[in-house]
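[step 3/7] fold_predict: job queued, chain A
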Amino acid sequence: MANVLPKKNEEYGTKKYWDDRYSQESEDSSFDWFKSYGEIADIIRELIPDKSSRILMLGCGNSTLSQDMYDDEYKNIVNTDYSGILIEKMRHRHAESRPEMEWQEMDIRDLKFDDDSFDVAIDKGTMDAMMTAKADVWDPPEEVIRDCTREVDEVLRVLRDGGIFIYLTFGQPHFRRRYLDRPGTTLEIRKLGEAFHYYLYIVRT
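[step 4/7] structure written:
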């Protein structure tokens, strides 16, 4: 793992870093930011009771979240990541065992899907990678504000009425609410964990 860690945290926000990292990692490598599916499965089942829901995974990486959800009968999952190298690896890895799962090379700030085409969107640490620019966390640079705002704009565009955006992060509400609190939606925030807290932001359209 050490040889794929960035020299600077802000590299987490670059496509080049992720392409280089996924090129070095083996075909069966996986890495999960924050909690595993097993740790949040009960919450996911509560928030997504209909297992036929069309689910958009934003910045899927090589996390096991999608495969674990698929194995839990959520078969209608579309995975996106802006690393084409990663997408090809994941498509090949799951082609036989999870044939209904889709893999698309795509930037979450410029989704190529039609309006109102998903029931659920899930971000597990992807927005956080866009927030790694070296700056005062209380006063983020314009690029960070623009990127994070654009992600949420795109998510709300592709979600159907009654849809839900689920975002898991370690980011506290005063750093995240500005991007998620939108007119015509409701925002629920849940704190998870004990010694170290994670936050689950739930935006309903």
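[step 5/7] annotate
Helices lie at 15-24, 37-47, 65-71, 84-94, 126-129, 142-158, 173-180.
The first helix runs from residue 15 to 24.
exit 0
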